[in-house]
Amino acid sequence: MAGGGTGVPGAVPGWVDHALLPLLNLLAAFTLSVAVILAIGENPLDVLGLMVQEALGYPEAIGYTLYYATNYVFTGLAVAVAFHCGLFNIGGEGQATIGGLGAGLVGLALTGWPWPLAAAAAILASALFGAAWAWIPGWLQARRGSHIVITTIMFNFIAASLMTYLMVDVLIRPGQQAPESREFDPGVWLPSMEQGLGWFGIAVPPSPLNLSFLWALACCVLVYLFLWRTRWGYELRTVGRNERAAVYAGIRPARVMIVAMLISGALAGFVGVNEILGVQHRLMLNVVGGAGFVGIAVALMGRNHPVGILLAALLFGVLAQGGAQVAFEYPSVNRELVMVIQGLVILFAGALENLFRPRVEALFRRRRAAVSTIQGRG
Amino acid sequence: MPVPVPPALETRAVNKWFGANHANRDVSLSVPKGTIHGIVGENGAGKSTIMSIVYGYLQPDGGEILVDGRALAVRGPRDALAAGIGMVHQHFMLVDPFTVLENVLLGAEGGWTLTRGMARARAELTRLARDYGLEVELDRPVGDLPVGAQQRVEILKALYRGADILILDEPTGVLTPQEADHLFRILRALRDQGKTLVIITHKLREIMELTDNVTVMRRGEVVANVRTADTDKERLAELMVGRKVQLRVDKRPARPGAEVLAVEGLRVRDPSGAERVRGVDLRVRAGEIVGIAGVSGNGQSELLEALGGMLPFAGGRVRLHGQELPSGGLDARSLRGLGVGHVPEDRQRVGLVTGFSADENAILGHHDDPAYNGRLLLDRRAVRARCEAEMEAYDVRPRDPRLPASGFSGGNQQKIVLAREMERNPGLLLVGQPTRGVDIGAIEFIHRRLVALRDEGKAILLVSVELDEILGLSDRVLVMFDGRIVGEVDPAGADERRLGLMMAGAAAG
């Protein structure tokens, strides 16, 4: 049809899309948070100030924040890779749990090995285990049309049940009540950042932050290169954007979808390296602690791009670490209230991502039209 | 001095902006009562925009609309209908499982119970059918009717609501020549009874055949208001494009060489399992263009998709360069390896990934080619260079390899696809609807490239629903109906009436 609207994407400058809109969403979330804090009779400035202070105010706090962010980078990347293939993988929680199992088995098996080899083995094992857990829903979606949202969420429950069984009946350290394995040989522990930086003579206070943070950064780069710079990433994105065009190009969508889920599951599985080999040094229950779900919000807020995901993961790291401290300091602010604030950020950054978009875009288009009119007539 | 009769419909200096795009610039036109008025222009010329404003879908940013000399504030289709303006859309707005009567009644039920409205509508529709030759069976579900009849239902809907001015947007796009003739008879009957008709089209032949006056638009502006009798096709095309246009395809007789594609008894099922190609035989030799004419939906799309590797063969044999293909067919990647280029019918949903940049689209299907790959990473410089060269050769505008494909106009999108498929020296080129939704200027270019490719000795299989295009380009024309080739026509001396009957399945070749 002639003269239809020119729906050109990127009609607004890039910085609006990548910076202004996320900031507006964030602002909206904090405005509502302020109202909630006021409602329970606390001073919002004090509470939010403490939150930032406890997350970024001193080196130890930063260590904790980055430790949380490490998990969120892994799960955020996992969601993003699947998303670029048109798949909504909300099974990061289960894939991370099973990835942790893989890392833990390596930790238990490799007593006496030097830590670099153990770390490499654990990365490989957690990737394999996470990928295997994502493979089943991926295969079911690609070959049988079972909806991936349904199957991945079911696999979260199956993973939790499986871990409970293994920890209670199989891997538990004999003679104790807690469902935990024995501690790994300290030689295979993934060095903490305190140790790692200590080798270079840099002193930082102890925190759960460990070398898997560097692996998370490397994964950001690798995921970027894979998705946008290789032919395999090209195929993956083609399938995600337009399956018919993929068939036209001779790409087999089913196979590419399965590969995308394998990569997604492997990335989620790396949470296990951070938690099991880097922090807990033993197999136990509930180590993932919701990071799989936070990854969805991180990917959405980060626009499914590694740079955005890194930034969003840092923000959620601040919320996790700062929030925990606020709950500790303020008797009236309990964990649930912190979750409300986190929930608001997820709501505005994720679910209501397009709340302000139409108005902001209209504003820019009108301004540009006005400019071109002036130029046209001047 | 007689009092001048005000025009049935008039627009005065109507302006409309879409963002930075000035879609209508001071559009003024006037349609005398009891005439058929044509509006022609290329895609994006603003002809649909001005009619959408008249019908109330869009609000103008300035200007006036007058009906019978009275200024009208149209805030929505309801106001337009109240003023006696009806519209027949390119894509029908009908509820398939409802009967004709129910569809006409929809939104004009006239009361709590349907009984009275039904009876009244039945009487009124019978009268309209008699007066204007608008015969349709009132109690058949609309989905069971042929396209031409569905269009008559749309016209009946508008007339039943009391329309005196009827706007038709690209009314013949989906019709066979016979159905189009039938439509023209109806439209002339309506005019002779005092109705006013506005036809939006890009087909100049229809303008010349049907209209009394014509408005030519270009880039949102009215460039001419003329009496149809005072102009001709070449002159109109020049006005539309802004320069002289070659309407006829100039080509020498074909000099066919060796057989490139041989298809015997091919059967193809669509993804839902319905057999859409039901035993097709055809041959394409090097250096010839074989056209497949037919009303869309008769299996041409599935034939092309199967030969392009998008659908498996369900039966039959296919030889390519003398080599027999496996009985189920090959996938698109293998076929490209054998030198098959494929310009799909639907460039936006098949031929391009609209969210990808132009240069990413330039390697779609060829992304495995070592020319664009290092050991691990894509060689972005090579990809970009390739795209830039193709954009230069095909005059794609804007010449920006980083722009998403969705940011190009339809004609330029088509050029991106054509360049990708034609510039890789294909032995066999499958082409579907090469100029659908493409500007006249670009059509000329595309036709010249196809003929040039033929003259280089390539075999070309062309599917198009544009009869003029099929007849103008092809060296041999096969007619397809209901999944079968029903006859062959020599394009040079084609009798369009017989061709139309074959397309409608009414005559054997």
Task: Write structural notes for this entry.
The complex is a heterodimer of chains A (378) and B (509). Chain A has helices at 14-39, 44-56, 59-84, 92-109, 115-144, 148-170, 193-198, 212-229, 231-241, 243-248, 253-269, 271-280, 291-301, 306-329, 335-351, 357-377. Chain A is an all-alpha fold and 378 residues long. Chain A has a domain at 75-310. The longest helix of chain A has 30 residues, at 115-144. Chain A is globular, with a radius of gyration of 23 Å. Chain A starts with 13 loop residues before the first helix and ends with a helix. Chain B is globular, with a radius of gyration of 25 Å. In chain B, the strands form four sheets. In chain B, strands 6-7-8-3-9-10 form a six-stranded mixed β-sheet, sandwiched between helices. Chain B is α/β, with parallel strands linked by helices and 509 residues long. Chain B has two domains: 9-241, P-loop containing nucleotide triphosphate hydrolases (Rossmann fold), CATH 3.40.50.300; 259-339 and 425-503, Rossmann fold. The longest helix of chain B has 19 residues, at 114-132. At the A-B interface, helix 9, helix 10 and helix 16 of A face strand 2, helix 1, helix 10 and helix 11 of B.
Short description:
Chain A has 378 residues and is mainly α. Chain A is 73% helix and 0% strand. Chain A has 16 helices and no strands.
Topology:
The complex is a heterodimer of chains A (378) and B (509).
Chain A: H1 14-39, H2 44-56, H3 59-84, H4 92-109, H5 115-144, H6 148-170, H7 193-198, H8 212-229, H9 231-241, H10 243-248, H11 253-269, H12 271-280, H13 291-301, H14 306-329, H15 335-351, H16 357-377
Chain B: E1 9-18, E2 21-31, E3 36-41, H1 47-54, E4 62-67, E5 70-71, H2 77-82, E6 85-88, H3 100-105, H4 114-132, H5 147-160, E7 165-169, H6 177-192, E8 196-201, H7 204-210, E9 213-218, E10 221-227, H8 233-241, E11 259-269, E12 275-285, E13 289-293, H9 300-307, E14 313-320, E15 323-324, H10 332-337, E16 340-343, H11 347-351, H12 358-361, H13 380-394, H14 410-422, E17 428-432, H15 440-455, E18 459-463, H16 467-473, E19 476-481, E20 484-489, H17 496-503
Helix pairs in contact in B: 13-14, 14-15
